[in-house]
Specification:
2 copies of one chain form a homodimer. The first copy, chain A, is mainly α. Chain A folds into 2 domains: 50 residues, Arc Repressor Mutant, subunit A, CATH 1.10.10.60; 123 residues, Tetracycline Repressor, domain 2 (Orthogonal Bundle). Helix content of chain A is 72%, strand content 0%. Chain A is built from 9 helices and no strands. The structure holds a DNA duplex.
Amino acid sequence: MTVPTGRRERKKAATRQKIAETALRLFLERGYDAVGIREVAAEADVAVTTLFSHFASKEALVFERDADFERCLVEAVTGRSPDEPLMAALRREVHALVEHCAAPGAAPVWRMIDASPALRQYEESMRLRHADALAGALAADLGLARATTACRAIARFVVDARALAREADDPRAAVEEIFVMIEAAWAATGARTD
Amino acid sequence: MTVPTGRRERKKAATRQKIAETALRLFLERGYDAVGIREVAAEADVAVTTLFSHFASKEALVFERDADFERCLVEAVTGRSPDEPLMAALRREVHALVEHCAAPGAAPVWRMIDASPALRQYEESMRLRHADALAGALAADLGLARATTACRAIARFVVDARALAREADDPRAAVEEIFVMIEAAWAATGARTD
DNA sequence: ACCGTAACACTAACGGTTAGCTTTTTGGAA
DNA sequence: TTCCAAAAAGCTAACCGTTAGTGTTACGGT
């Protein structure tokens, strides 16, 4: 098979990105609720069905990087340097993710998300998926066949940390504060700390 | 005002309950997705608009006791005996709530919820609301004006505990295991333990 | 007995989403 | 180069949850 970028895949990715860009622009210009799917599709010059073949829902248009965040979390565990403790790697990654949310230009997007119940709800369900993925990675890292209750709990705490930090006055300090709690919780499970 | 049960309030409560009962019956008989709102309304012999004046959404029909759960959590903090430590009260309450989910007859409902993405998503957003309410109660109990990051984090951990325990093979053991972690996290904040 | 209002009803629509089907584009085989 | 199977995109028409707008009835307090 043709390993590098086939034209088909490139065109598909381009279509996807054009839809996402158009949607975000319209949403920011006129408000998420005030812009309909038919409008986004028309402005991006694609059919409504095409839009839905790239994005599972209207909300998914806003969280285009969804899969990336999940990958980052998992890779923070699986791809860390051999001598880095598990929790330290997670703390570092959550710091990076929170930093990313505070990037210039991201503020209007987050304001839009906070203003829309539908978007907030979607973000919550995203977090659960990320927690499940992270729990799996944690289990694998510990040599377990399945994610234990402790793995699942820690994974949830970690994704909660990101969410809470984003809302806090001082996100960096909030991450530090919550990770002190998470490390204590982790230590209480009797897990190794390497 | 007439303190006891006015006829108007009784009729309203009866209508609400009839709608909820009818909906749950139809959902369990034929599947959540296979039953439409118009059908539920017709079977309960009310107008669609009446149904939506009692329940904010189709999913809310399934989680009729939503407000009760939130109240239980908050009251576990505010209404505990003066000598009971905060975390012990919360652990007891989460045990009770998980027990309640395992009640006979509840199994089909939870199977239905697990099978429907819409219901799962709704449950997640419910959890967040409960966590916010609990965070407020925690802050009040500690004499704080606003919920701090630590309060919010602990509140999330507690509602996560309930969710994780419900999915675990041994719910009781899971609650115990997670609360060991939560107590460690709580202690790490330097909070008093009374 | 009367009035204000809460509860309920009806119609019609809006907006997200999907099914069914056709057309175009693309990668690779003949 | 030509042709085919499949992927991608398109169009139409609906389904379904939800809401606005507008009456109508039944109740509680005066």
